[in-house]
Amino acid sequence: RTAWARSLEEQLGARTRHVQLLQREIAEHEATLAAQAELLAQQDRTLHANKAERRLIAASKWIRLGRKLNLGPVIDE
């Protein structure tokens, strides 16, 4: 019985260490995901700012006049 109890204790210890390792890996992955989510949010803000700027450029009187005279660039909104 003592050997059996020791065996169970060793198995429990090994599984506990394995669970702790997995918890650390999960925490690392969560941190990586959080960093990537922030990067995506920043890129999304930049994209929206660029789209707004392109709309302003396309609405410019000078750009529209240039397009009517076939001199200006085509700027998609």
Q: What does this entry look like structurally?
A:
By secondary structure, the chain is an all-alpha fold. It has helices at residues 2-59, 61-68. The longest helix has 58 residues, at 2-59. It starts with a helix and ends in a 9-residue tail after the last helix. The model has no long low-confidence stretch (mean pLDDT 94).
Q: Radius of gyration from the CA trace?
A: 30 Å
Largest sheet composition: none
Unreliable residue runs: none
Number-wise, the strands total 0
Quick take:
The chain has 77 residues and is mainly α.
Map the helices and strands.
Blueprint: H1 2-59, H2 61-68
Please give a handful of descriptors for the protein shown.
77 residues, mainly alpha, 2 helices, 0% strand
